[in-house]
């Protein structure tokens, strides 16, 4: 077995990854600590914890993070690890509480992570030094992002460059209408590689391809649809903004992000089966514009913003050879289910599309496991996947070499 260094040096640019990147446990360990515990990841919306004492627990590989709203109405996050002998402190997935009592020996913490009570603690040991470990959490217009690192990259540029797009779609005034978890029997990179390209959209996604012009990017008809969409952007209450600071364009010491918008085909106002609206208009949008916007936030969190709803996509590993896609459907906070939106109709497109993706990603993994798998050339239609892989390799290089 070559060392990771040899493997990285041997990897050909713009060709798919060597099999070992998908199978080697030491590579997965590097990814876990340096990508997943060291990137900003979308974990939910502030509206999920509206009241003081509301909390939920977010799980990522070996880690569990308690996300809560404290007595001062601030959102905080703590590692779910007792400072006595390390037990999980909170065993519930969500709820409302004024304190957390460890189930093992009853050490008790308040909503600021401070240790309040620890029976029979030896003299000279300070309770004030045994609070729950805090975890970085930031709200990007209501979207909660966490980063498990002690030294996270800054979200300053993301917060200022995406402020306007967030406002256009009223991100802070959203609520989660639905959330679904899709387990995928593949290494996480195959799922992200797949999400980054629409080369597969034609054969794999007939439902999506009927309405979304990204399917014909670089083909005749794309520019025409784009022009049409742009024409009434302004009158719909949207702005022509493009930000590209992700993957290979990332600013040093800043988390990556991007924003762009593309057209939907004639007859489609949103990502619905019949093209008709699915929910009330979002934010400052005055009327439906025939398009959808892509947000990239950090390496594995993406949002698709239609005029009436947002779909959040987050890819995380659950082990070296398994991953998951969490999808959130968000609508205006005042929209009422069964009156203003129908959950099944709202979820239809990305539910059917994600199941189709799961199938092709799992087939991809099976082939990658073969003794005959070799790197293959990425096409021009896979430019974003190429940028993702380039970024991934440079990250790995900086940690492994
Ligand atoms: S491990 Fe939590 S109180 Fe002992
Ligand atoms: Fe897909």
The count of domains is 2
CATH architecture tag of the largest domain: Alpha-Beta Complex
Strand content: 15-25%
List all distinct small molecules, including ions and cofactors, that are bound in this structure.
FE2/S2 (inorganic) cluster, fe (ii) ion
Average pLDDT metric? 96
Class from secondary-structure proportions: alpha+beta
Description:
The chain is α+β, with helices and mostly antiparallel strands and 401 residues long. The protein has 2 domains: 41-138, Rieske Iron-sulfur Protein; 156-400, Naphthalene 1,2-dioxygenase Alpha Subunit, Chain A, domain 1 (Alpha-Beta Complex). It has 11 helices and 17 strands. The chain has helices at 4-10, 19-23, 25-34, 156-161, 163-168, 188-195, 201-204, 206-211, 222-231, 343-368, 383-400; strands at 41-45, 54-60, 63-69, 75-79, 94-96, 99-101, 108-110, 115-117, 136-140, 143-147, 174-184, 243-245, 257-263, 291-297, 301-305, 310-319, 322-332. The protein has a 7-stranded antiparallel beta sheet with strand order 11-17-16-15-14-13-12. Strands 4-3-2-5 form a 4-stranded antiparallel beta sheet, with no helix packed on it. Helix 3 (25-34) packs across helix 11 (383-400) and helix 6 packs across helix 10 (343-368). It is globular, with a radius of gyration of 22 Å. The structure holds FE2/S2 (inorganic) cluster (FES) and fe (ii) ion. Residues 194, 200, 204-205, 353, 357 line the site of fe (ii) ion.
């Amino acid at each position: 077995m070559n060392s990771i260094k040899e493997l990285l040096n041997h990897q050909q640019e713009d060709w798919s990854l060597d099999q070992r990147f998908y199978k080697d446990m030491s590579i997965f360990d590097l990814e876990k600590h340096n990508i997943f515990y060291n990137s900003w990841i979308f974990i939910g919306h502030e509206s999920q914890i509206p009241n003081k004492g509301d909390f939920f627990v977010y799980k990522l590989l070996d880690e569990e993070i308690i996300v809560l709203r404290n007595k001062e109405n601030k959102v905080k996050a703590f590692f779910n690890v007792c400072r006595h002998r390390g037990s999980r402190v909170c065993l519930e997935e969500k709820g409302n509480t004024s304190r957390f009592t460890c189930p093992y020996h009853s050490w008790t913490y308040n909503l600021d992570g401070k240790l309040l009570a620890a029976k029979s603690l030896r003299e000279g040991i300070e309770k004030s030094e045994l609070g729950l470990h805090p975890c970085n959490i930031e709200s990007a217009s209501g979207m909660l992002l966490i980063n498990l690192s002690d030294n996270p990259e800054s979200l300053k540029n993301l917060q200022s460059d995406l402020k306007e797009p967030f406002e256009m779609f009223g991100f802070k005034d959203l609520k989660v209408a639905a959330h679904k978890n899709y387990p995928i029997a593949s290494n996480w990179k195959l799922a992200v590689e797949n999400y980054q390209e629409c080369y597969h959209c034609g054969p794999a996604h007939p439902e999506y391809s009927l309405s979304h012009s990204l399917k014909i990017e670089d083909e005749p008809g794309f520019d025409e649809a784009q022009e049409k969409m742009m024409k009434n952007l302004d009158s719909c209450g949207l702005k022509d903004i493009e930000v590209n600071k992700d993957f290979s364009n990332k600013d040093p010491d800043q988390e990556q992000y991007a924003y762009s918008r593309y057209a939907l085909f004639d007859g489609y106002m949103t990502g619905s089966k019949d093209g008709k609206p699915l929910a009330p208009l979002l934010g400052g949008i005055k009327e439906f514009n025939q398009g959808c916007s892509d947000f990239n936030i950090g390496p594995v969190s993406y949002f698709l913003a239609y005029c009436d709803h947002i779909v959040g996509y987050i890819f995380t590993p659950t082990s070296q050879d398994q991953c998951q896609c969490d999808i959130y459907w968000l609508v205006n906070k005042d929209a009422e289910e069964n009156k203003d939106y129908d959950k099944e109709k709202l979820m239809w497109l990305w539910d059917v599309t994600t199941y189709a993706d799961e199938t092709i990603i799992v087939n991809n993994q099976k082939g990658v496991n073969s003794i005959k798998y070799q790197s293959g050339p990425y096409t021009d239609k896979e430019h974003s996947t190429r940028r993702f892989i380039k970024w991934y390799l440079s990250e790995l290089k900086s940690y492994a070499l």
